[in-house]
Write a structure and sequence with these properties.
This protein is mainly beta. The protein has no helices and eleven strands.
């Protein structure tokens, strides 16, 4: 059983920066992917970014590309989402989730290279407001 815990959320002004941390524990898998997702009030959850722990390959949603950076420490099993030039539309609860590459998402919506997520964290709130 794999556990994920997010931290680092908070209130930030438009144009500011914030870094989220996802600590992964309980994993016996050598390779997996960690995705970041967000859900704003009244909206569906959307994929933000994904990183593979092995090669460090990344993928980003078009709405955050060039502003958000995903990085990881494979040995410590920590993933970070560095968010820059934040906008009010970035306000949401942010979740990290892990994929063990068990199943595919067939509708093309997966942010993690076509794979479905197997384990989820509880989320951390990011509010972008002046």
């Amino acid at each position: 059983q794999l556990q994920l815990a997010e931290s680092g959320g908070g209130l930030v002004q438009p144009g500011g920066s914030l870094s989220l941390t996802c600590v992964v524990s309980g994993s016996t898998a050598e390779y997996y992917a960690v995705g970041w997702f967000r859900q704003a009030p009244g909206k569906e959850r959307e994929g933000v970014s994904c990183i593979t722990t092995g090669t460090g390959s990344t993928n980003y949603a078009s709405s955050v590309k060039g502003r958000f950076i995903n990085s990881r420490d494979k040995a410590k099993q920590i993933v970070w989402l560095h968010m820059n030039n934040l906008k009010p539309d970035d306000t949401a609860v942010y979740y990290c989730a892990a994929s063990l590459f068990k199943s595919m998402v067939t509708d093309g919506s997966s942010i993690c290279f076509g794979y479905d997520m197997d384990y989820w964290g509880k989320g951390t709130l990011v509010t972008v407001s002046s």
